[in-house]
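Justification of resources, computational component.

The compute hours requested in this renewal are based largely on the per-chain cost of generating structure records like the one below. Each record pairs the submitted sequence with a full structure-token output. That output is archived, and it is also reused by downstream analysis tasks.
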Amino acid sequence: MDELLHILNELHPDIDFTTREHLIDDIILDSFDIVTLIAEIGEEFDVTITADKIVPANFNSAKALYALIQELQDEA
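The structure output for this chain reads:
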């Protein structure tokens, strides 16, 4: 989780990603952020986020995003 929080904090250092739960709904993360996240998460965690996983529910919080990463790692 620390690695993910580091990636998120590089995008938006002013946001507390440990408590925010509506990153997409509140338009904190935009489409460019999502593309950056997908690339950096792929590199850091050695997973591929497929198009069917790119839904707001998976990106609305750091917790949800980390659960997605764990799910993808378990499938590998």
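The chain has one domain: 2-75. The first helix runs from residue 2 to 11.
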